[in-house]
Amino acid sequence: MRHDTLIERFREIEQLAEKFHLLETRILGVLNFRDFFQVLQEQIGDIFDVPHVWFSLIREEEATAPIFRTGLSSQLRKHLTRIEREEFMRLFGRGDKPLLENENLGPYQVLLPELDKFHFRSLAMVPVSLNGKLVGSLNLADPSAKRFHPGYNPIHLERLAVKVSLFLSNLTAHENLYYLAFHDPLTELHNRRAMEQTLEREFARAQRYHSHLSLAFVDLDLFKSVNDTYGHDCGDALLKYLADGMVQMSRQSDLVTRLAGDEFILLLPETVLEQAQLLLQRMADRFVAEPLSWQDEQVPIQISFGLSSVLEDHPSSAEELLKLADERLYRKKRARQGNG
Question: Vertex 45, ends 16 and 178: CA angle to 5°?
Fold first, then answer.
């Protein structure tokens, strides 16, 4: 190989290394999925001069579940598509190397983002993995058929695959830790920490604007008996069933949280006590009418609840609002036991 050819090749490698360093510098500070996909798409497009960059992720992959917990915003749908595993494997094949295509592009139209359709004449599908498992691809498309062709040297695409998979793996781990800090892992409801922060904020807002805020303290009756009779797996299923039911019957503005064990808190903004009473009674009636089906048996459900209100009880603090609801729940359960 001629000396000048070696120098030119060295320069190409050096320039490529600089591009990857720039990409790392710009992406490592990103700590949420929305910004990650947008910044990565923009940076790869600019640094590598590719007009169309987006992701395709395989549906129902547990590893990518954190990405879709809060749904896809319209902005994110410009950079991300979801595809069934069977269809993805039909397009990509079973290999672990970038796929390059510039002829039969019709089948690949299914990869295009929902909100950003465009024409292209060559395509590179760069495999993306999480924890060693293929979960999708980073797609690069160009209006020129000469850009990505089967004879194209894929070395920088292979390196890009490693970098992107590493970025996504780190971000997924970070998002999981953040999610678990504010959510109950069993029911996926917000946890006590999230409830306390939201309660303080909503209590201050209700006082400042003289607006209604009600709180419900909910307890599952005879939960220990369920665990003793049907087992702890049934008890867990019952808690999840209760959580899902309360969320379904609540408004988007309400916050349903698991406090601990079989205790739940509902924060109900812009809700007077009478409305809160009607809502919680509907919930109680529904759970009585619709028991949990467990291994060919019907597990009965009964809840008790106590209510409090900012404007109707005039508590001096968020903590007192919570305490009032807790005390009313306790009195209601004692009265029920006394009558039983």
Answer: 95
The CATH number that applies at residue 216 is 3.30.70.270
Are 199 and 311 within one domain? yes
- If asked whether residues 173 and 238 sit together in one domain, one would say no
Amino acid at 80: L
Q: The dihedral of CA 198, 203, 204, 209: what is its sign?
A: positive
Q: Which residue spans within 169-291 are E strands per DSSP? A: 213-220, 255-260, 263-269
Alpha-carbon distances, residue 236 vs 30, 181, 230, 257 (angstroms) = 36, 20, 11, 16
Q: Indicate whether 178 and 200 sit together in one domain.
A: no
- Are 264 and 236 in contact by the 8 Å Cβ rule? The answer is no
Strand-pair category, 80-83 with 297-299: unpaired
What lies within 8 Å, CB to CB, of 303 at 6+ separation is 218, 219, 220, 221, 242, 283, 284, 287
Residues 17 and 150 placed together within one structural domain of the fold: yes
Q: Tell me which residue range forms the domain holding 276.
A: 192-339
Length of the chain: 340
133 and 169 in a single domain? The answer is: yes
Per-residue DSSP letter, 291: P
Is the pTM higher than 0.85? no
Residue 73 neighbours by CB distance under 10 Å: 11
Three-state DSSP state, 58: strand
Contact 104, 76 (CB under 8 A): no
- 325 CB neighbour count, 10 Å cutoff: 25
* Structural domain total, the chain: 2
User: pLDDT tens digits, residue range 198-221?
Assistant: 999 999 999 999 999 999 999 999
Q: pLDDT tens for residues 36-83?
A: 888 888 888 887 888 998 899 998 777 777 777 766 666 667 778 889
